[in-house]
Amino acid sequence: MLGQARYLCVIGRARLVPSWFAKVHPTTGTPLNATIVLGICQASIALFTELDIVIEMISIGTLLVFYLVSNALIFRRYVILSKNPPLHTLLFLFLLSSTSFAFSLSWKFKLHWWNLTLFAGLIFFTTVIFQYFVPMVVMERQESWLVPFMPWPATISIFLNVFLMTTLKMVAYKRFGIWTCVITIFYVLYGVHSTYHAEEILEMVVVVDNVNVNSSTQQQITKVDVQLV
């Protein structure tokens, strides 16, 4: 929660929220408005909300973000960078999430041990088959850092995040669903239009700057020609 002010400042620069949140203090360089508003909101939540509710809301949000990042990492490495057809990668991600969810439910409801062995084996062999049949381009650029031993780190991350999310209570998912609906409505009604408008303004500024640069260059060339004459 302490890092949310920085996130809100960046989101404000993208105009997904009012740009007022992107204001930075001239001396300290910190997001002033975002820190004040979020500080008041977080203090109010801490004052009027039970700790268990806050912990589960933070946990489900963080775990979901880590889960999505792990999926995006596999998709980026095997589809965007390696130029493979997306179908095989999407099928692998679907099977991986499904078997991880099945293993987690088997663990939660304390089913027979062979259920856990079956789903764990499916996760392992699915990853092995995907790694063997779907090629990955190895980047040799020294200035870039990439996650090694792919896709195993992302696979383990997906499994652990799914497993931990199944340990949360159902009421946490209901609260998270309500909050997600509110944020989605705000994004559709405000964020999309504001971002699109900001991009139009940025394109106009770039065009004006290019025109000014071209006119300034032309004037300099004209002055040089006059001096030569």
From TrEMBL:
<feature type="transmembrane region" description="Helical">
    <location>
        <begin position="145"/>
        <end position="164"/>
    </location>
</feature>
<dbReference type="InterPro" id="IPR029485">
    <property type="entry name" value="CAT_C"/>
</dbReference>
<keyword id="KW-0812">Transmembrane</keyword>
<keyword id="KW-1133">Transmembrane helix</keyword>
<protein>
    <recommendedName>
        <fullName>Cationic amino acid transporter C-terminal domain-containing protein</fullName>
    </recommendedName>
</protein>
<feature type="transmembrane region" description="Helical">
    <location>
        <begin position="176"/>
        <end position="192"/>
    </location>
</feature>
<feature type="domain" description="Cationic amino acid transporter C-terminal">
    <location>
        <begin position="145"/>
        <end position="194"/>
    </location>
</feature>
<keyword id="KW-0472">Membrane</keyword>
<dbReference type="Pfam" id="PF13906">
    <property type="entry name" value="AA_permease_C"/>
</dbReference>
<feature type="transmembrane region" description="Helical">
    <location>
        <begin position="87"/>
        <end position="107"/>
    </location>
</feature>
<feature type="transmembrane region" description="Helical">
    <location>
        <begin position="53"/>
        <end position="75"/>
    </location>
</feature>
<comment type="similarity">
    <text>Belongs to the amino acid-polyamine-organocation (APC) superfamily. Cationic amino acid transporter (CAT) (TC 2.A.3.3) family.</text>
</comment>
<feature type="transmembrane region" description="Helical">
    <location>
        <begin position="113"/>
        <end position="133"/>
    </location>
</feature>
